[in-house]
Specification:
heterodimer; A: 250 residues; Rossmann fold; 2 domains; six-stranded mixed β-sheet; four-stranded antiparallel β-sheet; 10 helices; B: 330 residues; mainly alpha; 15 helices; 76% helix
């Protein structure tokens, strides 16, 4: 197996008395979609913030392309090729869609013309082609999610961290955006996504990590993970797996 | 290049004024207006484009003014060199205050309060330090020669300050179409999102503060050469901090012409009221306050923003009135 692009090694983060992330380890490889799932409050977004530099880990290491990047600030990580989206979308509300994407495009294209060209292309790729001159605050929820994705993509990342890009979308909107995401990994980008929409996890992810109470409790292919009794119990409570099994028998 | 045409037109129109107007009162009024517009444009770079509302532009204005005056009065330095040194000194003060405030992570009202505090500390220090003339202030010797940056004619002074304003307009226009400007605006809109996209928010804000301080300091340097006098209340007083932020807010924050438009309106109103009522102390501040309330209520994007909205509205109306076939073709 090739060296993973991202490897998180025993990372912990403490907020006062609360151990939000407890010695979590995971990895993400180029050209594959890796999902991070887990019940609400498991620490998924905290783990994302640790990887993307918005929080510093209390312990553990984060490696990217075999460099130790633990505790590096977000803008330096972005330059290395790590991009993230936010669960609560953070558009530059006063700017147009095009100007929003342009900010990301400028990372690797100092010249305005080249950055504008890239912004326009990325906008079309995520399906915002005919909204480029609309103000960002006028977009629907689905549009804002696409905009988050477009801005991150405009930085031309190698590793893309998607924090619930499908949350709040209706089934047809989800159906529209799934091919966009799988296209990214086909291009060789390592995608690590937090996701609650299991339909998407099952159809997209090559590998799944399950986080519960700050710890990675299971990992494997999507069918393996959903069949794992430990995972079922993490979601449904202690003893749930046994009850389900006995219900099946009867 | 087309983006610079409006600047060219506006500057050319201002430059033509001395050809028709010879009244020293009017020219003096315009010089002061442009001076405030220049100080306001400094605020606008950091506050308008970067969203960091400084309440202490006086720190830069005063440093520029004092540096220019002190170098001439105490060290016999040439006025032009003193002027350049004043701009540099103002920029340096901007870098120091910016580094401290942004490193400490101060945002919005905390940043505003800290900049105000720095300006006040400088005012108090300047009012007791011998080198700044303490309570008496500094008088620059009258020497009406171009080498001494003093001019017999008000019109020359007017054209000099107009030149500075033109440069500040070009800086804002360049900013709007550059990577640095895109990053600065992104920081204003959402700092976390900007950082996630690779923007070094600290460096961007600091650079904007240095440019902002340099422009406002240039206004301070000019003040000294024009009035040949400075004391702590003029240099570091809150009057200039207030006028520097009021003019772009009234004119339109984060726009190229906002500070200039705001300065014209504020000064016209201020002088107009004085003509009617005589010189009642504090009356101009009351007028500023009233105008500010009206602008925030009815034109939150300032006069420049209101003008743009009006034009868009008229364009829509014209389109609606046109026969249907024409709209389709147009």
């Amino acid at each position: 197996m090739a060296e993973p692009l991202l490897s998180v090694e025993g990372v912990s983060r403490r907020f006062g008395g609360l151990l939000a992330v407890n010695a979590a380890s995971l990895s993400a490889e180029a050209g594959r979609i890796t999902a991070l799932i887990g019940p609400n409050g498991a620490g998924k977004t905290t783990l994302f913030s640790l990887i993307s530099g918005f929080l510093k880990p209390s312990a553990g290491k984060v490696r990217y392309a075999s460099d130790d990047i633990t505790g590096e600030p977000p803008h330096r990580l972005a330059r290395r090729g790590i991009a993230r989206t936010f669960q609560i979308v953070q558009p530059f509300a006063g700017l147009s869609v095009r100007e929003n994407i342009l900010v990301g495009a400028h990372l690797r294209h100092p010249a305005r013309a080249a950055a504008l060209e890239l912004a326009e292309r990325v906008g079309h790729d995520v399906g915002l082609g005919d909204m480029l001159d609309r103000p960002a605050h006028a977009l629907t929820v689905a549009g804002r999610k696409r905009l988050e994705l477009a801005r991150a993509l405009a930085t031309e990342p190698q590793l893309l961290l998607l924090d619930e890009v499908l949350a709040g979308l209706n089934p047809s909107e989800i159906r529209d955006i799934l091919p966009v995401i799988s296209e990214l990994s086909a291009r060789g980008i390592a995608v690590l996504m937090i996701e609650h929409v299991m339909q998407a996890v099952m159809s997209l992810a090559g590998h799944v990590f399950v986080l519960a109470e700050g710890r990675i409790i299971a990992q494997g292919s999507p069918p393996q993970v959903v069949a794992d009794p430990i995972v079922v119990e993490a979601y449904l409570g202690h003893g749930a797996a046994a009850k389900m099994r006995s219900a099946h028998v009867h | 290049m087309r983006a610079f045409v409006p600047i060219l037109i506006v500057v050319a129109a201002f430059a033509a004024v001395p050809l028709f107007v010879h009244s020293n009162v009017v020219l003096n009024f315009l010089v002061v207006t442009l001076l405030i517009g220049l100080a306001g444009q400094g605020w606008n770079i950091l506050g308008g484009y970067g969203g960091q509302y400084s309440f202490g532009q006086a720190a830069f204005f005063g440093t520029g003014a004092y540096a220019t005056a002190i170098l001439q009065v105490h060290y016999g330095v040439n006025a032009w060199i003193g002027f350049a040194a004043g701009i540099a000194a103002g920029a340096a003060v901007g870098a120091i205050i910016g580094a401290l405030a942004f490193r400490a992570g101060l945002r919005s009202s905390y940043f505003a309060l800290v900049t105000l505090a720095f300006a006040e500390v400088l005012r108090i220090v300047a009012s007791v330090t011998p080198i700044t003339g303490a309570g008496v202030g500094l008088l620059v010797r009258l020497d009406l020669r171009a080498q001494a940056f003093q001019f017999q004619s008000r019109a020359i002074f007017y054209l000099v300050i107009l030149g500075f304003v033109a440069v500040s307009l070009v800086i804002a226009q360049l900013l709007e179409r550059s990577r640095f400007g895109a990053w600065l605006i992104a920081v204003r809109e959402n700092e976390d999102a900007a950082m996630a996209l690779g923007v070094d928010a600290f460096a961007v804000k600091l650079a904007a503060m240095v440019v902002s301080a340099a422009i406002t300091a240039a206004a301070g340097c000019f003040y000294v050469q024009y009035f040949l006098f400075v004391d702590s209340g003029i240099a570091y007083g809150t009057w200039i901090s207030i006028e520097a932020l009021l003019t772009p807010i009234i004119g339109g924050v984060g726009t190229v012409f906002g500070a200039l438009a705001g300065a014209l309106v504020v000064k016209f109103l201020g002088e107009g009221i004085k003509l009617v009522t005589g010189d009642v102390p504090g009356l101009d501040l009351m007028i500023y306050g009233a105008v500010l309330v009206l602008v925030i209520r009815f034109a939150p994007r300032g006069l420049v923003g209101a003008f743009a909205d009006m034009r868009a509205h008229l364009a829509r109306r014209a389109k609606l009135r046109a026969p249907i076939g024409e709209v389709a073709r147009g």
